[in-house]
Amino acid sequence: MRDEVAVTGAEGFIGSHLVEVLARRGYRVRAMVLYNMHSSRGWLDELPADVLDQVDVVFGDVRDPASVRQVVEGVAVVYHLAALGSVPYSYRAPRSFVDTNTIGTLHVLEAVRACGTPRLVHTSTSETYGTARSVPISEAHPLQAQSPYAASKVAADKLAESYYLSFGTPVVTLRPFNTFGPRQSARAVIPAIIIQLAAGNRPRARRAGSRPGLHLRQRHHPGVPGPG
Ligand SMILES: NC(=O)c1ccc[n+]([C@@H]2O[C@H](COP(=O)([O-])OP(=O)(O)OC[C@H]3O[C@@H](n4cnc5c(N)ncnc54)[C@H](O)[C@@H]3O)[C@@H](O)[C@H]2O)c1
């Protein structure tokens, strides 16, 4: 069905907003949620019933190629957001970041290629640029992996590029800066700064000053690439 789209990382902060926007625009959304024993659907459970009517939840894991294939088969667009996203945790568990962010993206690329999916939107991060050598950061800025998280995303981006150059896979890579808005973890940089300010403390945040933020409800909705 060509008016059906898939979202990985659908239960997360950005993914749940994307699912909501797509459903409200009339698309049927196949929403991949990381399998868990509690059948928790994360932020998707907060969405109104009329939105959820448009959503088919598929529990799976991007580290597993078979479950990725189930999500991708037959859809018009795949929005790939599933990832481990914590820079500090990546120092402690780098292998899991490679497995999820790099190998997981490889599985998505393979499934998209095998299924002939018309479009893949791969979500990377501005962390791939590291500390800015020049501002504003352009796409030509060198990639500097300053954490295992960034390295796992640089590798994923390069796989996406290679699938485009080798096989013509129709993939677009996004590199959002710090994104903030409703449903975000309080541990993320912008909420953490706000909490410190609200408590009357001087904010402490690594490299926060060099990066602009992206408010989800202000900026994301008009720019959501649609099928076709
Ligand atoms: N939030 C930001 O400021 C920001 C900035 C730049 C890039 N990004 C990127 O945007 C995407 C979404 O980020 P977010 O802030 O919504 O993060 P999030 O942690 O809220 O969402 C990520 C989702 O991926 C899921 N996931 C993790 N491992 C998985 C696996 N093995 N299989 C399937 N699903 C899995 C998680 O359950 C989670 O729901 C990520 O790729 C992230 O790297 C986010």
Major sheet description: 6 strands, parallel
CATH architecture grouping: 3-Layer(aba) Sandwich
Classified by CATH, the class is Alpha Beta
Unreliable spans are 218-228
Read across the widest sheet, the strand sequence of neighbours is 3-2-1-4-5-6
Backbone CA Rg = 17 Å
- Total beta-strand segments: 8
> Structural class of the secondary elements?
alpha/beta
Q: Can you tell me the CATH topology?
A: Rossmann fold
Straight-line distance between termini: 13 Å
Mean pLDDT: 90
How would you describe this protein?
It is a single chain. This protein has 228 residues and is an alpha/beta fold. The chain has a single domain (4-185, 213-223), classed as 3-Layer(aba) Sandwich (Rossmann fold). It is 39% helix and 16% strand. It is built from 8 helices and 8 strands. It has helices at 13-24, 49-52, 65-72, 87-92, 94-115, 148-167, 189-198, 216-223, and strands at 4-8, 28-34, 55-60, 77-80, 119-123, 171-174, 178-180, 213-215. A 6-stranded parallel sheet has the order 3-2-1-4-5-6, with helices on both faces. Helix 7 (189-198) links the parallel strand 7 (178-180) and strand 8. Helix 1 (13-24) packs across helix 8 (216-223) and helix 3 packs across helix 5. The two termini are 13 Å apart. Mean pLDDT is 90; it is low at 218-228. Nicotinamide-adenine-dinucleotide (NAD) binds at residues 8-9, 11-15, 32, 34, 42, 61-63, 81-85, 100, 104, 123, 125, 176, 178-179.
